[in-house]
Amino acid sequence: HLPVSFYKSFSDLPDYNSYAMAGRTYRYFDKEVQYPFGFGLSYTTFGYNWIQKPENTKTTSDKISMQIKIDNTGNYDADEVSQVYIEYPNVDRMPLKELKAFKRTSITKGKSQIVTLEIPLQELQKWDDTKKQFKIYEGKYNVKIGSNSRDAMLETSFEIVK
Asked: Model confidence over 127-155: pLDDT tens digits?
C-alpha cells in the first residue's frame, strides 16, 4: 500500500517555499489525486459491513472500539488492509483526516472475517495553542473505513464529551 499520495499535477500543490501544511499530504489535501495514500492493488474485491460502530465516549475513556465484517466477494484468496480515518471536530488547524488504525486480514474467497479495530483515545490528542499542551477536543468525530484514504466503504460518527 502506498505511503504517500500521487497528485495529478504539481500545480495542485502549494508553493514549494511555503512550509504550511495546508494543501499537503493526504491529511490536508482536498483535491482529486492520481493514487491516494494507502492505495493498493488486489486481484479480488471486498465488501464491508458494520458489526459494532464506535460509541460516544468521555475524555477520560481509554479507547474507541469498532468491529467490522469484511467479505471476500471476488474469485481469489487475498489480504485486505482495512484503514480507519478520523475527521476531527471543526477546530482551527485540524487536518481534514488522519489514519488512526489499520489491520491486514487474510480472507479466503467467498468467506468473511470479523475485524476489531481500536484507537487509543490518546491518539486523538491535538496541540492546544492557548494552553500550550496536548488535549482531546470535545465534539463530533467522523469515522471512515476503507482500503485507502479516499475509499470510504463505511462511515459513522461518535462524540467525545467531558
From this structure: 888 999 999 999 999 999 999 888 899 99
What does pTM read for this prediction? 0.84
* Domains within the chain, CATH numbers bracketed: 43-161 (2.60.40.10)
SS3 label, residue 43:
coil
The tens digit of pLDDT for each residue in 58-95 reads 877 889 999 999 999 999 999 999 999 999 998 777 88
- Could you give the 3-state DSSP secondary structure of residue 73? coil
The answer to whether 22 touches 12, Cβ cutoff 8 Å, is no
